[in-house]
């Protein structure tokens, strides 16, 4: 299955953490422990495409792949926020969870070619980078 995450409404490139400025805020998908496909926080929009294996088991479907985090029945994909430092290192300060169980009504385990589209509003109600569990109305899911 392909999970297409469409990021929109970015919060901007500057952010303060505990009073300290971050002036090069980026967001990307987390693969294992590392950020991937970083995009500047002032982008007009982006699309991340994540391959996810859907496995049918005795207890229902399960999800696997490099971007899949968490334990069985509690799998998710992280969007990770951080400051991209001048030396190229990434200092993570916030993450948003896209819970894969939320995809279950759209997933067909026997259709490996399917695409699910998750449209995410990346700015929270206070104008900052969205974090915690993604829910409607900030998350809209559709079969592609």
UniProtKB/TrEMBL annotation:
A Pfam family the protein falls into: DUF5990
Check the record and name the InterPro entries matching this protein: DUF5990 (IPR046032)
From the Swiss-Prot or TrEMBL record, give the protein name.
DUF5990 family protein
Q: Which organism is it from?
A: Haloechinothrix salitolerans
Lineage of the organism: Bacteria, Bacillati, Actinomycetota, Actinomycetes, Pseudonocardiales
């Amino acid at each position: 299955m392909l999970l297409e995450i469409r990021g929109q409404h970015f919060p901007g490139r500057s952010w303060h953490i505990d009073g300290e400025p971050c002036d090069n805020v980026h967001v990307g998908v987390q693969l294992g422990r590392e950020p991937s496909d970083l995009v500047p926080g002032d982008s007009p929009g982006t699309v991340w495409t994540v391959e996810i294996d859907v496995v049918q088991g005795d207890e229902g479907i399960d999800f696997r792949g490099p971007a899949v985090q968490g334990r069985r029945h509690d799998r998710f994909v992280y969007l990770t926020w951080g400051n991209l430092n001048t030396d190229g290192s990434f200092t993570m300060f916030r993450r948003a969870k896209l819970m894969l169980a939320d995809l279950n009504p759209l997933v067909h385990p026997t259709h490996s070619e399917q695409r699910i589209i998750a449209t995410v509003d990346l700015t929270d109600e206070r104008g900052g980078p969205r974090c915690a569990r993604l829910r409607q109305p900030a998350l809209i899911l559709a079969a592609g």
